[in-house]
Amino acid sequence: MARASYHHKNLPEALLAASVALLETQGIAGFSLREAARQVGVDPAACYRHFRDRDAILTELARRGFGELASRMAAELAKNASRSAERRLLVLGQSYIEFASERPSIFRTMFGPTGREARDPRHRGAHPEGLSPYQLLETNLLEWAGTAQLEIALDDAALMLWSAVHGLASLLVDGAVRLEPSRRDRLCASVISDLLAGIAQSSRSSKPVARARGRSKR
Question: CA 25, CA 22: separation in Å to the nearest integer?
Answer without folding.
Answer: 5
